Amino acid sequence: MSRTVYVNGEYLPEGEAKVSIFDRGFLMADGVYEVTSVLDGKLVDFDGHAIRLERSLNELDMRAPVTKDELLNIHRELVAKNDVVDGGVYLQITRGAPADRDFVYPDPDETPCTVVLFTQSKPGITESPAAKNGIKVISIEDQRWGRRDIKTVQLLYPSMGKMMAKAAGCDDAWLVEDGYVTEGTSNNAYIVKDGKIITRQLSKDILHGITRAAVLRFAAEAQMEVEERLFTIEEAQQADEAFITSATMFVCPVVEIDGAQIGGGAPGSIAPRLREIYLDEARKAAI
Ligand code: PDD
After folding, report:
1. How high is the pLDDT of residue 1?
2. What is the mean pLDDT of residues 167-178?
3. 15 pLDDT band (50/70/90 cuts)?
4. Within this chain, do residues 155 and 248 fall inside the same structural domain, yes or no?
5. Residue to mutate, 32, 34, 35, 45, ligand 1, most ligand atoms under 8 Å from C-beta
6. CA of residue 66 to ligand 1 center, whole Å
7. Is the C-beta atom of 37 inside 6 A of ligand 1?
8. pTM for the complete prediction?
9. Looking at ligand 1, which residue's alpha carbon is closest to its atom 16?
10. Where is the domain boundary, 125, 143, 164?
11. I want to staple 185 with a disulfide (CB 3.0 to 4.6 A). Which of 48, 158, 213, 225 is the partner?
12. Domain count within the chain
């Protein structure tokens, strides 16, 4: 079934939506994005995603082309028009399409940003086999650029990482820099040892996950101990549990890292519990 998508102020059938070949998103990956999950037809953590989007735009000297309220309306319109019950909304804003290719940024008064949104319907998203059985990851060197806190559309290396994982018979890759895990290709990474949840502290080295912020808050509220610090793959392999968080996977256990089983190769108790709390709270607060 053809989706209705949003491009620069218009709602169009997906086959009719067009962006210029001179768009800087296409030529230079000069754009930012957000993925907001949808549960029961409602947006999860919309505010968090909107605030991070604003920050990404600011960091790249891009002018926000739509207000937060307008964005919320577009998200809701698309969810309604496409009858999305469970799934997500993808949003991308690029520095627009100047008259020609040029490394220099175009004048924002002459070249408006390009705004694209589309929905992804994923029935049963909360009941995935990955969440039930856990996923297997490999570790690879983190070869991304140094501003991973900005959610840009430069996703080639994360994509290569997923392909390396697939080639190794695994589901995803954890990225390692200077001996320490930064994050997953498209998620934040955690380990659990003696009941304590350990995850890398926020910096320019990782994306400041919206799911991460919520999960750490819920963990603290549930009296779970949280430590934000560096950890290695070796430490992760010795951990009692490991897991990832993202807007598309929520909380998902990791049961194997570079061939070493974690917690006997089955999800432990903390990650599934956090997932349950997260999904409950996300549903309650969704708008
Ligand atoms: N990815 N780290 C990276 C590198 C990511 O790409 C993502 C999200 C996260 C988790 O952030 P959040 O909890 O806000 O989704 C961490 C999205 C889901 C994607 O690219 O599809």
Report:
1. 75
2. 98
3. very high
4. yes
5. 35
6. 22
7. no
8. 0.97
9. 187
10. 125
11. 158
12. 2
Asked if 252 and 186 sit in the same domain, the reply is: yes
pLDDT confidence of residue 82 = 98
Q: In the predicted model, is pLDDT for residue 251 greater than 90? A: yes
Confidence of residue 152 (pLDDT cuts 50, 70, 90): very high
Q: Whose CA is nearest to atom 6 of ligand 1?
A: 186
Which of 122, 132, 136, 151 is an active site residue?
A: 151
Across all residues in the chain, what is the average pLDDT?
97
Give catalytic status of residue 151 as yes or no: yes
Q: Which of 74, 104, 125 is the last residue of a domain?
A: 125
pLDDT in tens, 69-113: 999 999 999 999 999 999 999 999 999 999 999 999 999 999 999
Residue 184 tokens read as 């997953």
Same domain? 168 vs 276: yes
One domain for residues 22 and 146:
no
Query: Residue 208 above 90 pLDDT?
Result: yes
